[in-house]
Amino acid sequence: xxxxxxxxxxxxxxxxxxxxxxxxxxxxxxxxxxxxxxxxxxxxxxxxxxxxxxxxxxxxxxxxxxxxxxxxxxxxxxxxxxxxxxxxxxxxxxxxxxxxxxxxxxxxxxxxxxxxxxxxxxxxxxxxxxxxxxxxxxxxxxxxxxxxxxxxxxxxxxxxxxxxxxxxxxxxxxxxxxxxxxxxxxxxxxxxxxxxxxxxxxxxxxxxxxxxxxxxxxxxxxxxxxxxxxxxxxxxxxxxxxxxxxxxxxxxxxxxxxxxxxxxxxxxxxxxxxxxxxxxxxxxxxxxxxxxxxxxxxxxxxxxxxxxxxxxxxxxxxxxxxxxxxxxxxxxx
Length: 333
Description:
This protein is 71% helix and 2% strand. The chain is mostly helical. This is Threonine/homoserine efflux transporter RhtA.
């Protein structure tokens, strides 16, 4: 029986996948502005993440149950992917990143985290023999150069070895997010994957917080957002609904439609959206250099997309990217 997720890649659904990937990136891009308003007013990063994914899991609880249609065995058979998704992609990536930001400038922390995109390419090459072609390498270089400009790495850089380690942990989590999300072999429905992943991630963080490994500290009841003072639950609700429930569910759909490699590079546009929302919500205007960097990122993604289309035309029968966590599928070379 053909998995519907895999057939998406052979029926023109990749265009829909691009739209979904951009929607997911835009949604994740709001997290920086929402979270910073809380963290700057005394909320600990771990507590912000815990409440974010707990509420996100509650929002997706009913849709997750309905999507399974009573087939609970699918949840058990996919337990390995779900647990890894929860630990690495949901809980780990966020906690590592927010701790990195406490020791590094935001630009450097994001740059290190987005090395996860490179890790995806390396994983597909070393684990599955999918060697990157010249256009993919060129697109990668353009996208990374653009990322450096958008993040303004040439101004106000702070380097801290511990912060770098936190950032590398976030990079592993980011790579795991795209690789696990792209898994289509006997995969859970995207909503169920996102919902159960956030639920397990929330339990994990609550346990670590309960034993004192992660500080769970609430801050001010009134925080600063969009140039004014708002109740703490407003940015928290934005984190839960937009940057968690919607972003994770749509992100899984996008990764299954595009494959891990392409989805990860489209995910770089999250940085562009983050700059845009920082402008709209916390009055941080983008510079000309950042706009130029944005054009380079878009250009890099476009080049990689051309390479993906060329390979699909050359090998139309090979449509599925191999699963990083399960039996190998026919490889999209």
